[in-house]
Amino acid sequence: MATLEDITPEMVDAGVRALMTGNQPPRTPAQAVRDIFAQMKAAQSQPPVAGLNTQSPNLRRFIDTKPELTPDDTRRMEAIRQTVPGYSEGMHYAFFKHMLTCASIRKLLILGVYHGRDIAYLMDNARALGRPLQIIGVDKFSDDFCEDWPKERQSLNWQQAGFGTPPSFDAARTHQARLGFADSVTIVQERDDTFLASCTDRFDAIYIDTSHDYYTVVRQIRDAAGLLTEDGLICGDDYSDQGTWGVKRAVTELVPGHVVFSNWIWIGARDQIKILPAARSRNEARLAKESPIDPLRRTRRPTD
């Protein structure tokens, strides 16, 4: 929505519908503007199904169905945004709602938790939709650099580098518990490469949002491919190659035919991934070395 040329008729219709909902329950002017903006972003045009190189019913429904946010959705999203630190905004909430509405997702993996805002968005949507959902969130939860940080900042911590509060395992767990999601969410404190190499679960969707450099995203897509169910979806944030990032290049090479939501969040199907899921055989070979998850801390611990 940077220019007038970007605004489609579908976006205008969505904005008008949000405006015409009236003021029941009462909305402040700021809330009304947020409702309109969120609806317009959710309705931003999607690529057509024609020529889509996938047999995935989940992805085809995602494309065929028009995204929709209600004013109540926006208010719940805003309540989470105000209390759970993070970088995700209305478009992310709209994406998660659309994905859960269109796809059969009962088990989901998130790589990159930070303080748990994306997990809260997902669980809030699942609860509102009446969909059972289990989420595993994986993050190294450390106050050191990520691979996509500029070289000159890699000796600094998060605050020193200008990236704000570092990721927090305890804060992520606390936020999920406060929101009533603890029974459906497992937080794992571990590097994603270690987790993916030893994981033997299968997921209906995997969402990637850690380091955005090209090589990390390539590795994550390759290693995650074998953990997807037959109609599984793979998706992620920050679809850009700006600066040190290489998300767009990596996704374009490994997931041809993927879809981009609101010009920023990418999604594709398992059968679109070019790299065969050889990572699965490596995972199975390491099964004997898998570390159990401590049910009290919900983080990995060494075997006895």
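[next item in queue]
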Amino acid sequence: MLNFSWPIDGTIVGLYLLATMVAGLMVRKYIHNVDDFIVAGRAMDLHLGIASLAATEFGIVSCMTAAQNGYINGFAGSTPGIFMALAMYIVGATGFCIEPLRQAGVSTIPELFEQRFGLGIRWASGVVIVVGGLLNMGVFLRIAGDFLVFASGLNPNYLEIVMTVLLVGVAVYTILGGMLSVLVTDYLQFVVMSVGLVIITLLLLFQVGWTSLVETVEAKHGPGGFNPFVNDSMGVPYVLFQAIFAFATVLTWQTIVQRVLAAKDSATGRRIFTRTSFFFVCRFLIPAIWGIAALAIFGAESSAADDSLYAMPKFLSVAVPTGLMGLLIAAMLAADMSTDSAYMLSWSSVIYNDILAPFRRRRPWSPRVGLLVNRALVAGMGVFLLLYGLWYPLKGDLWSYLTVTGSIYLTSMSVLLVACCYWSKANNWGAAAAIACGAIVPITYLILEQLPATHEFARGIGPHWSGLAAFAVTGVAMILGSLLKEAVVTCPSPPKGAP
């Protein structure tokens, strides 16, 4: 029997949603130009940055992903969180790439690339970032809706309506308040999310018991449930790819980098990274514990676990009592709303700042026109999110899909950023080759995975080898392309009349 009560839990959720909308709309009067809209006037302090980054990077999708990893891989499923935490701390402590990026005073990464590689590379980088980001974000709304259906007992016939209403609410305060609304609502959502996660986790540990969780992982997964190197579905390729992917994400994922660009100075941006780093362990470990608890109660052979992605919300629907269920749903909606608003703003800002850059230069746009275009782009992101989420058939586990689509731009953008900041011989030929190769490999894998004739072939390769190949090919393309231009341009012309 489901424990969600509409009079009690529904009221809790409704009051939270109302408070979020009011908070998000109250700051709209402070938006005067595009800089305010995209990077909040570059005035974000440390504590607001920590709360905003943590709230943005924990949504229903990331929770479902980590819970599924815990269900099918045990505690080893938290491996990506360990690498993310290490990457965040190392990059923040050293300032690797993010310090020169913030000091450049740009609003997006492609804007920095123009200073080194030219306008064409800036435009191409923007296109790749938006394509990869939208494909990655496309499944967010559907997964969030499915969570609500299984956790609260919502009638599936009303799923599309609920998804649309929720998205419209998020879009309204993001369209009107931009980054300021995202930061303010993120702070509120961080508080609700943190309280909810801690309370629900303690409740589940009390109900199931830590010893039972460990014994379940040992019985169902053996040593592979604790050690990713000996896990049949993970192994060395998985670990290597997750390590590289984590550093690429920290360096170039737009929603993360946007916090550095919005910080009041580079030192604040670096401290945001180091002090948020441990959160990424929690981001993967807490939902993994929920997934393992579902495995302990349902068992891998139970009909409730037919789809590992939904085992966790099915378990929560019967394990969390009325009253706390309202807090859980509010916490998860808080996490999801902060993610959706930040992602819509991030991709729309790249379209405006980089893809539309050539058009804005022909005839400079006034601040009013710039704000209007940005708001229209955010609305467009919402429409895409709604439509794509309704028809795309997710195949394989969710985390693999997110890493493959993210690789479409993470591979090339991370290589370009490192080369831009630290390799004096890098040039636009190498950058163009890296962008092309970095996008072709993961897109080809996605296509092969979707086609019935090549699906098994794609499974044989796997997302981890595909991802490693993408990073390797992109790095080689950057080096060879840059050296080729250097050789061609500096090669002396033959004297006139020479044979």
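[queue empty]
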